[in-house]
Amino acid sequence: MSVVQPEQDFRIEELLASVIVGLIGDARHVAVGATSPIPATAALLARELGRGRPRVTILGSRAHDFFSEGGRELFDCAGQGRVDVFFLSGGQIDGGANINLVSTGDYHHPQVRFPGSFGSAYLYYVVPRVILFRLEHSRRTLVPKVDFVSAPGTSPPNVYRPGGPIALVTPLCLFGFDRVSARFRLRSVHPGHTVDEVTDSTGFAFDRPDVVPTTPAPSAENLRLMREVVAPQLADVYPKFAAKVFGIEQRRAG
Amino acid sequence: MPLIAKNLDEALAPVVDGSALLVPHGTCGVAMEATRALVRRGTRRLRLIALPTSSLQADLLIGAGCVDAIETSAVSLGEIGPAPRFTQAMLAGALRMKDATCPALYAEVQAAEKGVPFMPLRGLVGSDLVRHRTDWRVIDNPFGDNDPIVLLPAIDADVALFHAPMADRAGNVWIGRQRELIMMAHAARTSVVTVERICDDDLLSDPTLAPGTLAGFYVETIAVAPRGAWPLMLPGYYAADEAHLSEYAGLAATADGFARYLDRYVHERRAA
Fold first, then answer.
1. What are the chain A neighbours of B103 within 8 Å (beta carbons)?
2. How close A210 comes to chain B (CA, Å)?
3. Among A123, A155, A250, whose Cβ lies nearest the Cβ of B126?
4. Is-above-0.90 flag for pTM?
5. By C-alpha distance, which of B191, B248, B203, B195 is closest to B55?
6. Alpha carbons B107 and B121: distance in angstroms, whole number
7. Which of these, B55, B25, B71, B36, lies nearest to B245 by C-alpha position?
8. pLDDT tens-digit map of B165-179
9. Do B132 and A250 touch (CB under 8 A)?
10. With a cut of 0.85, is the ipTM above it?
11. Residue B97 phi/psi, 5° resolution?
12. d(CA A70, CA A78)
């Protein structure tokens, strides 16, 4: 995962963060949830590029969290439409963008048990742009049908749903998601990987253009900002990630 | 007025076998010293409600056999990895889990704060969580038209248990910015609080401290437990002990290793 690839002077984490910055686009408020260090990197990079816009909230952070009413305030804020972008993952993600954060196999006799659904069964509905990310791109994780729907990718028209998925980012590629057809569409394949590799590693069917572009490498400016400006800010909430990817020494109060 | 107890065990008297115990997530002020005391005491059949998630606290209580059922949105050690005893117990079918989503738990706590039987919440419709949560209901919004919405029952918690920086001699507790702890105390029938220290001032008389203060009215007992959230963080005071949490994750990967952890850090009082 974090191996520097030959002929490239960036890490996969930096590439993925750079892809996610492109997906964030213009936003007022980007929130980042539990165990999401790459989205956190991207959100902070977007803020640097936008000279302070969007506002970034990182759960579990002291510096990047303006809430004074804790998690309750975050979810109420999102429910009012005051969070524009959020990130979700899943132990399993299927071709309809349904996500499973609970278990595989029978719910009452699980084969694998994941931590739980966190805020997904709410934020997936109310945050306009949810970016899915999964750091294992395999037929085990990207499946035809999830065993448990923590949160569905799409909902019937009578269900209140201003939000939902716009894309799925993996170490191999970027998929866009079409809410009308409820299908993913391959948008680009990362440098060093191929469409065949994506097809072989993906358990669900997806759409693709005739010619699939290669994901652009992170710009020199994005790399510089990530390494020099963003990385030290990450250590507050993701010390292990900041140390592993950016070589930031752990220096925590205590 | 709350009892300022002589020791932890005295303070923990309101928590009995079978109690429904409401606890906060790992970055908010978790009463870990008190949790170790519950394990030492051999507490059984707890119904744990973790708002909205838990980390080491739930894993430790589950591994030590203190918990029958848990309602929460996730149990995980965060960046360190899965919560090993929770995961093992779930795979073994040894734990009743009421899977939730974070805002649903906050809504259930808010309902209890208000003394109303339920709270509506957006989202959720079509999630398998609703299918398995037979205590949740989907109704048609009575103010709308063909608009399904989920109703969540008020949380039913006997005791809220958490750790905070300080309390005054009248039992008012300063929790600072961690105001969801105040929600928890309002929602539960009573609260047990551990604090870093007791201060001589009246916390409610200082306008800068009062908004971050839980009135002692809601608190039954208080005990002083210096570094009482260790190895988890107390925001603004100390960080999580990442090295210790990694050691825990390694040991708790097996039942034998977990037993060694208990011997070393729970049954023997830590020297740190």
1. 72, 75-76, 78-79, 119, 122-123
2. 35
3. A155
4. yes
5. B248
6. 7
7. B55
8. 999 999 999 999 999
9. no
10. yes
11. -110, 125
12. 13
